[in-house]
Structure formats: structure tokens, C-alpha cells
Amino acid sequence: MAIIIGTLEQGLSYGIMALGVYITYKILDFPDLTVDGSFPLGAAVTAVLLGKGVNPFLVLLVSFGAGLLSGILTGLIHVKLKVRDLLSGIIMFTALYTVNLKIPGKAYVPLFTETTIFDMEFLQVFGSFYGVAMALMVTLAAKFLLDLYLKTKSGYLLRAVGDNEVLVVSLAKDQGLVKIAGLSIANGLVSLGGSVYCQQQRYYDISMGTGTIVIGLASVIIGTKLFKSFSGKWVVSGKIAGSAAFLTRNRKGVRPTTAVLAGAVLYKACVAGAMALGLDPQNMKLVTAVLFLLILVCGMERKRKVKGNA
Amino acid sequence: MLELRGIRKYYNPGTVNEMCIFDDFNLRIAPGEFVSVVGSNGSGKTSMLNIICGSIDVEGGAVFAGQEDISAKKEFERNRRIGRVYQNPAMGTCPNMTVLENMSLADNKGKPFGLKPGINKARAGYYREMLAGLGIGLENKMQVKVGVLSGGQRQAMALLMATMTPIEFLILDEHTAALDPRTADFIMGLTDRIVREKRITTIMVTHNLRYAVEYGNRLLMMHEGKIILDKGQKEKKALKIEDILGLFNRISVECGN
Fold first, then answer.
1. Do the domain assignments include residue B118?
2. Domains in chain B, number
3. Smallest CA–CA separation between B238 and chain A, in Å?
4. I need a labelling partner for B206 at 20 to 30 A (CA). Which of A3, A92, A250, B106 fits?
5. Mean pLDDT computed over A208-236
6. pLDDT tens by residue, A38-69
7. Cα separation, A185 vs A24, whole angstroms
8. Any idea what the CATH number is for the domain that residue B231 is in?
9. Domain architecture of chain A: domains with CATH
10. How many CB atoms lie within 10 A of CB B145?
11. Strand runs labelled E in B161-207
12. Got the DSSP string for A1-12?
């Protein structure tokens, strides 16, 4: 039981981060490594602000803002200074390591007595699932806001820039600015995930960002691959039913954002399962890497998307 | 009016591979003109389009749109007044977005891309009508991703999307070259219809000499960065494919092609 609750709590807060990775990897087609720095950035900001007694929900917002900023910087390095996408992320997460040390002033901050979003009174009705309930609320709020955004004109432009940059230029829009905006929203979400994770674990550790990109990518790929096959079947069944309304409702299948969240929980479950089977925590990173490789190979995501789609 | 004044363009300047494309290139296109441009590979046709659109920098000279010098403007800024269709049908649409989403994007050109809903439902009927006008069944594929459409369907959409909002200049960069002959004829006819209806000043680069002679009201032939043939409306009417083919073969032989 404790394992299930722990998996759900952690899976959901990693899910918020995975939504950010979804934006960069799937929508922008930009392998953004900044997340390894922006995830702990959100946590570092959280640790400091909670220590000062700031409202924990306000802390979520400030962390989101810090992430936005780091994304903007990555975007500026890539777009204005014309540094390659992968390198821009590497530069940023290396720089953020120092920032993440300086913000709290030390590498480890325990948060035992501070009030977090998980200490809210109203959560008592959920019993031992109080943590899951809170994580779910924040995660779903982030997901629905992102879904809404992606349906706006601005969101369309974001999807277009990853799909066909030339078209965005044709629409008389600065493709660089759209990319910067996308990177900023993505890293905002990643930092928000870091903040929730930190409040949940009740500590901040400088090393908590290591491998974030792997967890994020794994979640995105598991989620989107798994539900792609599902939604295909639903469309077919919709056609058999022959009802137009049924068909339009099911044509889209599961929203990619939902799939990504499910992917994050599933990924966490895999890791928890391995631990429960007696895996030595020292082997953790190796197992993570092998698992990720397996997912990549099975998901056929090794090849980078071909630009142009001609 | 579109004007290129004293354009100088070098590729790889300052290296052993330095190549001069244009040295004092001048061209003036009157409002409402539909100019077809032919010429061998490397004659500077596409470079000329890229210079007009701001896709590549120049070493000297100026580009005027109307009375305004747009030389310092970036590509995306110039595109407010310019529509462009490329040789590759994939360039003019977003493959992972639906037909409806693509049309909505194009419809919003020149307006702010803010937080309003991406699809204006009230406009969907108008898009459907426009697509139905093409006569290739796209009006029944509004929810289909553009990536699964054929090259011809995509190019028809690209053309429609490029000319959906009011633009002053239409740039066609061998836009029928990647299509089969029948589809190419269809796209060419569609182009002619749109250009006439909307009276857009148009420059069309093509390798199809028949299109160059049949369509448009001015014909240019380019060779090694110079205009070697410029026929206006009256002269162009008397022009036959054989005439320009002869000239074309002569310059090609000179280059050793």
C-alpha cells in the first residue's frame, strides 16, 4: 500500500515535469537538457521560500516563474546566440547547478517543520491518500491549463513552430520568439514539478535534478506510444458504431497530456517494482538507463524526426 | 511595385570558393504584373526570390516594396506583405496539424496570435467553402492531418493558405516542379485563377517553359545573374515555346550543360 501511494505521489509530481518535457521534445522537437537544472531550481526556490514561511501555493507560482526564466535564457542562447539546441541546454543546466547551490546556500535543506501544500487541513478527508489527492490536484490543474493553452492561437503557433518553422515565418511571426516562449513554458512546468516534489519529499538536495531528462523523456515516450495504439482501436470501434458524434469524440483518442501523465506514473511504478524486487539502490541509475534504452528501442524513437516530412 | 536596385550577392565571400551571383542586378515589377522567370540552374532565379523575401543577406543594393525600402527588414517582417509557395509541398503546411487547424493558422496571418481559441468556429464554413472550390474533396477532410494528404493536395492547400489574407506579392518558387504533370496543370490553373481574382503582383520561377509562356503577362529569362530576355505583355503574346527554347539551349551549351 505504501509503495502504491508513494508511486502515485512521485509519479504525479514527475508528471508535471514530464508535461514540460513533452512541450520541448514532442511539440518543439527540441531536446532540452535545461530540465536537469530547472527541476532542482524549482525545488531550491521552494526550500528557501518555505523556510521563510511563505504560503506554499504562492511558492508553487514563484517556482513556476523561476522555471520560466531559465527557459527564456536557454531560448535566448539558442535563438539569439545561435548555439545548437543540445548545447544550449547543457550550458544552462551547468550554470544552474551553481545557481541551485547559491539559492539555498547549501547542498541539502531538510523541510521537516515547514508548512507545505501537503499539510492543508482539507486533505484529511482523503485519509492516507491525502498526498496523492494534493499531487493530483496540482498536476491536473497544470494539465488542463496546458490543454487550454494549446488550443489558443498562441498554442497553435507553438505547435506549428515544431512542425514546420518555415510556415511560422510565412505567417509573419518571429519563429525564434515562439521557440523561446515554448522553452519558457516548458521549463516553468518542470520547475513547478520540482517544487511539488520538494514539498512532498520534505527536503531539498542539489542532486535531485540529475537524470530528470531521462525520467521526463521516458514518461513522454511510454505515455504517447502506449496510448497511440489504444486510440487507434477506439477510432475503429467508433467507425463500426457509425455514429458521427461518437466518432468525433473518439477520433482524438486520449489527449497526449493525459498520456504523458499516465506514462510518468507508469515509469515510476516500474522503478518502484524493481526496488520492491530487491534492487540495490546503488544500481538505480544503471537500471534507469537500461530501462530508458529499452523504451527507446521498443518505441522506435531512436531516429530524430525528419524535418519537412516530405 | 517591387524593385531590386543594384543588388550585389556573393556566396562564400573572401574564400577560394567565392562566387558572384549578382553584380548590380536591377529589376522593377509593376503592380499587378504576373512575371514568369526561367533560366538554367545556377542562373540566380531562386537567389533572387530569397533576396526579395529576405531569406538571404546581400552584399549591396536595396529591395523596395512600393515606396518603402524593406532591405533592413527581417524575413518574417517582410512576409506580412508577401506570400510564398515553395517547390516542396511540405513547406507550406504543418503536417501534424489538421486541415482545419492549418486553415485557421493561415487565416490569422497579420493578426495577433494571442489567447483566443485557435479555431474560430464561425469561419469553419468559409474554409470548407474555399476548400470545396478546389474540387479535390478536401472539404470532407477538415479533421485529417495534413501530413497524410498527397503532394498535390498539400500544394493546393499551401497556395490557398499563402493567399488567404490580403498580400501584395506572391512568390512562387518552382511550385509545380515536385508534382506529376496532371497535378501540376491543376495547381497552375489554380494559381492563375487566384492571381487574377486577387490581383496580386506575382513572380513565378519555373522550369516548365510551357507554363512560362502560357501564364502571366511578362517573361524573364535569367543567365549567370543577368536578365537576358525580358518580354512584356504584347511581345510575350507573340512568343512561342520554340523561341525561348532555342535561346535556352544556346546559353546552356555555352555553360557546357
1. no
2. 1
3. 36
4. B106
5. 78
6. 999 999 999 999 999 999 999 999 999 999 99
7. 9
8. 3.40.50.300
9. 2-299 (1.10.3470)
10. 16
11. 169-173, 201-205
12. -HHHHHHHHHHH
DSSP bridge pairs for B65? B2, B68
A66-93, pLDDT tens digit by residue? 999 999 999 999 999 999 999 999 999 9
Partner residues linked to B170 by β-bridges: B83, B202
Among chain A, residues having any CB pair with chain B shorter than 8 Å are 149, 151-157, 159-160, 163-164, 166-175, 248, 251, 308-310
Instruction: Write down the pLDDT at residue A1.
Output: 80
Contacts of A310 in chain B (CB under 8 A): 88-90
**Could you tell me if residue B123 is inside a domain?**
no
Q: Which residues of A138-169 are buried (b: 16+ CB within 10 A; e: fewer)?
A: bbbebbeebeeebbbbbbbbbbbbbbbbbbbb
For residue B39 the three cell numbers come to 533560366
Domain that holds residue B43: 2-94+168-255
CB contact under 8 A, A164 and B84: no
Q: Flag if A163 and B74 touch (Cβ within 8 Å).
A: no
What band does A253 get if pLDDT is binned at 50, 70 and 90? Answer: low
B144-198 residue pLDDT tens: 999 999 999 999 999 999 999 999 999 999 999 999 999 999 999 999 999 999 9
The answer to whether position B104 is within a domain reads no
Average pLDDT, chain B: 92
pLDDT of residue B2: 94
Report the alpha-carbon distance of residue B252 to residue B257 in Å, rounded. 5
Q: Across the interface, do A155 and B143 touch by the CB < 8 Å criterion?
A: no
**CB of B134 within 8 Å of any CB in chain A?**
no
Cell (9 digits) for A288: 534507469
* Range from A212-216, A240-244, B178-182 carrying the lowest mean pLDDT: A240-244
Task: List the single residue in A149, A156, A310 with the smallest CB-CB distance to B90.
Answer: A310
Using an 8 Å Cβ cutoff, are B93 and B39 in contact? no
Cell numbers standing for residue A237: 470501434
| Residue B35 placed within a domain | yes
Chain A neighbors of B91, CB-CB under 8 A: 164, 166-167, 308
> 3-state DSSP call for residue B63?
strand
Residues 6+ apart with CB under 8 A from A198: A42, A43, A46, A47, A111, A204, A208
Nearest to B104 among A156, A168, A169 (CB): A156
The mean per-residue pLDDT over the stretch A180-194 comes to 98
Q: A109: which 3 cell numbers?
A: 535543506
Residue B243 confidence (pLDDT) above 90: no
Task: Chain A: give the shortest CA distance to residue B65, in Å.
Answer: 16
> Which of B135, B130, B127, B76 lies closest to B98 in space, CA to CA?
B127
